[in-house]
Amino acid sequence: MSGSRELILGRVRRALADVPEDETPYEQAVPRDYGERHGERTPAETVDLLAENLADYRAIVHRTNAPGLPSVLAGLLAARGARTVLVPAGLPSHWLTGVEQVADRAESTPYELDRVDSVVTGCAVAIAETGTLVLDGSPDQGRPRITLVPDHHICVVRVPDQVVSSVPQALRRLTPTRPMTWISGPSATSDIELERVEGVHGPRTLEVVLMSEA
């Protein structure tokens, strides 16, 4: 154990030395009775709100059903001129046809990932009120880095099952020990003069396909 870590843990132990053993645990002592969402919405209205807020963040939103998804993805990749597509191991095989698929491998270098034209993933949950997509490293989403290096990310959201209204509702669905990436629009930042620059620490272009499984 490093000296710095031992120093920090020692301070924590000293700070907790006078805490009674029967004191209420933190997770029980802090009330969690705040509202979990703003207003009442039907599932369809929640999906519409998600689409609206995604667009506000400059994501490009598309809608389709499950049978139409392969042709939508093929059209988006063709319009982009994408010849190579990074694919997580658990992405349904029938989603992509007619493109060179690059496997998500642990040994891939950042330079190799940067040469890939596009990446296609699923998601764990999408939050309507904030226009946020959450990826948690599940088989259809792959390692976190695969959505941070390529310049073009297509994320497929199953609606309405993967869409919730609020962040608290999303947290109930997520496992805190998983590697999560929270995405609200394409990567962007602003300089001191508030000039927006996209693609600094993630994809310059984010396309979201809302796929109805009905």
UniProtKB/TrEMBL annotation:
Top-rank taxon: Bacteria
InterPro entries membership: FTHF_cligase-like_sf, LUD_dom, NagB/RpiA_transferase-like
SUPFAM superfamilies per the UniProt record, alphabetical: NagB/RpiA/CoA transferase-like
Pfam families the UniProt entry points to: LUD_dom
Residue ranges occupied by any LUD domain in the UniProt entry: 111-211
Gene3D superfamilies: NagB/RpiA/CoA transferase-like (3.40.50.10420)
Coiled-coil residue spans: none
Name used for this protein in its record: LUD domain-containing protein
Native species: Streptomyces glomeratus
Lineage, highest ranks first: Bacteria, Bacillati, Actinomycetota, Actinomycetes, Kitasatosporales
